[in-house]
Design brief:
The chain is mostly beta strands. About 10% of the residues lie in helices and about 35% in strands. The strands form 2 sheets. Strands 3, 4, 5, 6, 7, 8, 9, 10 and 11 form a 9-stranded antiparallel beta sheet that branches. A two-stranded antiparallel ribbon has the order 1-2. It has one domain: BH3618-like. The chain starts with a strand and ends with a helix.
């Protein structure tokens, strides 16, 4: 399948690499089909809409950056995504890339949950004060000392 992308231009992808977001992504409810594309030689991926080239989110595996990060999926999410085991699931967090890059933040409050087997996805908004939608990817040393 041939698609236009925001960061990779025109590319060819396999139908098997498309995730269906039945409810879309908050703010982009009409966008139902996405694929994950690597971003060069970085730990980041692009969650790219299949139908709209401009709709692309830079993501990363939150556990690589925030080792103590926890996601407790609700029964509704487990049902919606047809998750049978932990091995079915991949979690990403959407980044808000800033200039300079050191000011980039991660939305830890609303991770992207993917069922790799069923090719289903959802942005899950966690009801917790533990995480924010703008968690610093690179906390400044000054702020760390104050804590």
């Amino acid at each position: 399948m041939h698609i236009s992308t925001k960061f990779h231009g025109e590319i060819e992808i396999n139908e098997a690499d498309i995730f269906t977001f039945q409810g879309g992504i908050p703010g982009f409810e009409a966008e139902k089909r996405f694929t994950l594309l690597p971003l060069n030689e970085t730990p980041f991926c692009i969650l790219q809409s299949i139908s709209t080239p401009e709709v692309a989110f830079i993501t990363t595996n939150p556990f690589d950056v925030f080792p103590t990060y926890e996601v407790n999926l609700s029964n509704d999410v487990l049902t919606d995504l047809q998750i049978q085991s932990e091995q079915d699931v991949t979690v990403f967090t959407i980044l808000s890339v800033r200039d300079p890059f050191e000011q980039t933040t991660a939305n830890l409050q609303a991770p992207i949950i993917l069922n790799d087997k069923k090719k289903l996805g959802k942005q899950y908004i966690m009801k917790t004060d533990k995480y924010t939608p703008r968690h610093e990817l690179f906390p400044s040393p000054v702020k760390q000392e104050v804590k």
